[in-house]
Each structure stands twice: as structure tokens, then as C-alpha cells.
Specification:
Layout (H helix, E strand, L loop, with lengths): L1 E4 L7 E4 L15 E6 L1 E2 L2 E2 L4 E6 L4 E2 L5 E2 L6 E4 L5 E7 L3 E7 L1 H4 L8 E5 L5 E6 L1
Parallel strand pairs: 3-13
Antiparallel strand pairs: 1-2, 3-10, 4-5, 6-9, 6-11, 7-8, 11-12
Length: 129
Amino acid sequence: MLLSVEARTHAPKFAVLATGPDRQTIELARGATIRGRLMQSGKPVGNAEIGLIGQAQGGFGPHLTIVGTPYSELRVGTQEDGSFALTNVPVQTNWYVYAKMESVASRGATEPKVCVTTRSEEIVNVGDI
């Protein structure tokens, strides 16, 4: 059985469990935080949307093995100073961070930033986008 488990203030997790009457425990972690700032010509871009997606898009293979990164895109808005923080991000994953085109179309596009989350509760700073 494949389960997608989510809980407030924790990173989502996929778990593959054998079915049956025995009780099973799935432990969740807080996940990582990815921070940065959206800028244009040296000025912050507030009220824009930032997206986060796994570099190796995936899903599930034979016997429910995870292939690539099965997580959906995460989104968050920027503050007035252009800063953003994506919280509860799954760990041990390579990510792309970028401005969503719908929110910056009149300003142009951004180059996606590459980052890696390695452990729960770490803070990854991608700098200025």
C-alpha cells in the first residue's frame, strides 16, 4: 500500500507499507527551509509567487518504488522586501527554485536556482533570484 502522509509543520512523506492487521508507525520530520529573495535591477520584488519543484520529476515504479521526486510543486509568496521562505520541504532532494511566470510576466523571467536539502531543520539560502 502506498500512503502520502502530511501533517501541519512537517514535511510530506510517501510510505510503502505491507497491508495487514499489525499497527505500523510512520515518522515525519520537520523538513528543511529554503530562503531567498526575489530582486529586479537591485530592487526587491514583493507580492510575487515563488515555485519549488524537484529536479528529477518522478513518480512510482514497480512494487511502488519511488522514482525521481514524486512531490508536487510547492508555492509561496514574496514579502514586500522580496524575501521568501519555503518551509517543511522534504529532505535528501535536489530542487529548482524560481519565480512563477504568472506573477512576474510583465517583468520578464527568472533563471531557476538549484539547491539541495540534506537534513531536517536545515536552512538553505539560495540568495537573490
